[in-house]
Design brief:
CATH superfamily of the largest domain: Anthranilate synthase
CATH topology of the largest domain: Anthranilate synthase
Structural class: alpha+beta
Largest sheet: 13 strands, mixed
Number of domains: 2
Oligomer: single chain
Distance between the termini: 54 Å
CATH architecture of the largest domain: 4-Layer Sandwich
Number of helices: 10
Length: 446
């Protein structure tokens, strides 16, 4: 059924939108638009020179049965396409756009935000603002610069610089403890030795109680400044915030062009240490790390090959360097085949998630073992985070290197891939290294 023939969801029937170009030289702080009010609905996503920032709620696109519901992602794209309006830009990210951070658990009910106001800019120097409303008067007129500035909340940002995300930590608790995590890895290795599974990713968490609530805007800037090449994201609502800077692209879809860059295999780096290059060389040469990485690449390539007419998968991974870590990374690219040209970024993300980089292989057995050993601790950690417009263009990252905020509680997770030959002590150290960016963003040394 075509999008125009569908009955739109409740609350969507009267929606209209309008997108107009704005001067990209005008100073607009997208993070302030999205996160300036920590209790309001807002989201910002930044990747390279592309930024989409949004505030307010026009509607929500709901997954009552989670990402696992067949056809739901495709139906949501149909709903988005059916909203009438005017788009004077027609570039990726313009027009009505859905944004969100989705849970790791594929079966958990969730939703994406269709914002009332969105600001976007891209690597070609183009910028725009989109308004979605059920009141036609909101979309009329010439939208004078003062009106646009008012839409974008240009009262000015809270000064951030290198200020701390929180004033001080009252307590820092680990779950599981270091000893418990080492024991948990040992139990997973027993399952690997029995050939029940090839790989499982086990996570642990740190919860930080702070003297005063962390400011999402400042935490976002500390994340994005520490990892400028990462996919930075921030989401606020009345129930809390979710902030991070992910190095891992789950999927990007622009027209028929599809990209993914799975990461698996990690080494900690100290930029001041001359031996850092030696460690990345050892990472590339490690049979264990390469084997773990190949499981992820084969899985992602298999999913994308089913919808692409051509797929380029390099023979060997490259090194993805970050400020304090390096990963094995394989960029995978292709073009959607004619029969799948209408497949949107959200549907691709739902098909790929969770990859063996954050779950394991085989996926269903890995998820069972994660539930058995970890319990329910992940929430939004390692889920898809990103955006999609009405053309189906969009970009989703894997929400690693992240922190959830609620009042004076901050919560961060990090995982390590367990395969045959894994050393429990080293896997523990890897999770500690992966937790440091979140603690740094909070202004905490741990």
């Amino acid at each position: 059924m075509s999008g125009l023939a569908r009955a739109l969801p409740d609350g969507w029937q009267k929606l209209r939108y309008r997108t107009v170009p704005v001067d990209s030289r005008e100073a607009v702080d997208g993070a302030w638009l999205a996160l300036g009010d920590p209790l309001a609905e807002g989201m910002v996503l930044a990747s390279g020179e592309r930024l989409i920032a949004a505030a307010g709620v026009a509607a929500r696109a709901c997954f009552p049965c989670g990402l696992a519901e067949p056809g739901r992602a495709a139906g949501i794209l149909d709903d988005l396409r059916a909203i009438p309006g005017q788009d004077d830009m027609r570039v990726p990210g313009s027009g009505p756009v859905l944004l969100g951070a989705l849970p790791f658990d594929r079966e958990e009910p969730c939703s994406l935000l269709l914002p009332a106001v969105a600001y976007g800019r891209d690597s070609h120097g183009r910028a725009w603002v989109t308004r979605v409303s059920d009141t036609g008067a909101d979309l009329e007129g010439g939208w004078a610069p003062d009106q646009i500035r008012e839409m974008l909340g240009s009262e000015g940002p809270v000064p951030h610089g290198d200020s701390r995300g929180v004033e001080s930590a009252v307590s820092v608790l680990e779950h599981p403890t270091a000893d418990q995590f080492v024991s948990m890895v040992g139990r997973a290795l027993d399952r690997l030795a029995a050939h029940e599974i090839q790989k499982v990713v086990l996570a642990r968490s740190v919860s930080v109680t702070t003297a005063s609530p962390a400011i999402p805007y400042r935490v976002y800037h500390r994340f994005s400044q520490a990892e400028p090449s990462a996919f930075a994201f921030g989401r606020t609502s009345s129930t809390g915030a979710f902030i991070g800077a992910s190095p891992e692209l789950l999927v990007s879809r622009m027209g028929t062009r599809v990209l993914s860059e799975p990461l698996a295999g990690t080494v900690e780096l100290d930029p001041a240490d001359p031996a850092a290059t030696d460690r990345t060389t050892a990472l590339e040469a490690s049979p264990k790390e390469r084997s773990e990485h190949n499981l992820v690449v084969e899985s992602v390539a298999g999913v994308l090959a089913a919808v692409c007419e051509s797929l380029q998968v390099p023979d060997a991974p490259r090194i993805r360097r970050l400020s304090s870590l390096a990963h094995l990374a394989t960029p995978i690219s292709g073009h959607l085949s004619a029969g799948f040209a209408g497949t949107g970024a959200l549907e691709l993300a739902a098909s790929l998630h969770p990859t063996p980089a954050v779950a394991g292989s085989p996926r269903d057995r890995a998820l069972e073992l994660i539930r058995e050993l970890e319990g329910d601790l992940r929430g939004l950690y390692a889920g898809p985070v990103g955006w999609m417009d009405a053309r189906g263009d969009g970009e989703f990252a894997v929400a690693i290197r992240s922190v959830a905020l609620r009042a004076s509680l901050a919560y961060a997770c990090a995982g390590a891939g367990i395969v045959a030959g894994s050393d429990p002590g080293r896997e523990l150290a890897e999770t500690a290294a992966k937790l440091r960016p979140a603690l740094y963003a909070l202004g905490i040394e741990h």
